[in-house]
Amino acid sequence: MTNPNLDIFDLKRLQLHQSKQELERTGRNIQQKVTSQDLSTFVPVDRDPVAAIQMTESKMIPELLPLRHQRMLASQFAFFRGTAELMERDLKEQHQSNIPIVISGDAHVNNFGFYASPERQLLFGLNDFDESRIGNWESDLKRLLVSAELVGEENGFNRDALKELLKLTTKTYRHAIKRANRMTLSEIFYSSFEINDMVNTINALGDGNAEMNYRLEKIMKKSQHSNSEEIVQKMGTTNELGQLVFKDNPPRAKHLGPLLYQQVVAGYNFYRQNAREDVRVLLANFHISDIIRYSVGVGSFGTRCYLIMLTGLDGSHIVLQVKEALPLRYNLLSLQVQEAIHNGIRAGRRIVTAQRVLQSSSDPFLASTRFGGRSYYVRQFRDMKESINVSKLDLDSFQLYCQVCALLLAMAHSQSPTSPMIRGYIKHQKVLDEGLANWSLQYVKQVSMDYQAFKQAVQKDKQQR
Questions:
Q1: What distance lies between CA 249 and its chain's CA centroid?
Q2: Over 60: is that where the pLDDT of 220 sits?
């Protein structure tokens, strides 16, 4: 079987050997064939959401599925976060621009956040790349818009105000693409969004930002204490031999059997071969103190995820997260378990590459590995990583937050050599603001139906046990 990850992430597809002007013309020509009205027209889908979810979960750890379901049932937005495969599948049924760029594949509002640059600056941007691929720019934007609507509804915002928020988010994306198109290639490559830049940008966008600024200031203070030493202090304990180890909290946090432990150690050793040279030298000062399986998130909950506690010669610590890299969710729907394992062997490299492209500055510890026949990627765990709790924002602050996400999404998309085609496509297309808002509102209805079907399936399953 052909490896889907190779087909979907062939970076040669972005090398069209055309000038910027030629690429823009290509975008305008595509606009004539696939109009803004086409892109804004919701094509009804016919599939069984429960069967699709079960197909995805067949590749996950069974004992974690009840807790995964509990998290997904918390709200429609939580369900949306946990079912990227449904929207990936549905987007293939919609009209598509077919402008190839590197996309996040899961650009909902909670997949933006703060992280540390190697220089220890606090940056804001996309922070999840498990579904990254060569795809259509509008796929990311539509997922952002649908998530904004879902969060806004849960926050109790006025329906008309939310519609305007969606329109403004698309407008911000369009203007940011226009702005990036005027920048030089080097300016785009080196662009970053430090937290103070975010504050300044928000202040420049309008009034009513006191709430957002207050939360940003709290994040700046909190992030300085979010590091490996804090994690070890919170999650560590001393065992009967006097050794520092992770606490058990099954099924979410659980120590490994001897065989799996040795596999993870082998994966860590292989990771060190793929890490940056300076990181490899640093890690030579550390040894493994403990390893634990530790599940995180909503969509990733149920996949294989481990934490490695490293202790240095000076007694300091680094905590690394080893996270399973599955094939794209859409591909999981058509693959049996063993085929999924085989086809996912390069998924770690895909995710690492996409993160380095789409983030302005990535974790220096980021690299891929493999063990036990599966693919993984490694990064620091919660190192200065923070996020804004969107459920706590008022309407004005949430609107500004969505605008910032749209701005960052456009800048991430602009890293692809084919991005001038987006500019050519959306130039003078204000109609997209209204059109994509309407598409998103239609898709939210689909999410609601899928959520109810999943809820009923879980309840039925409980009754039968």
A1: 26
A2: no
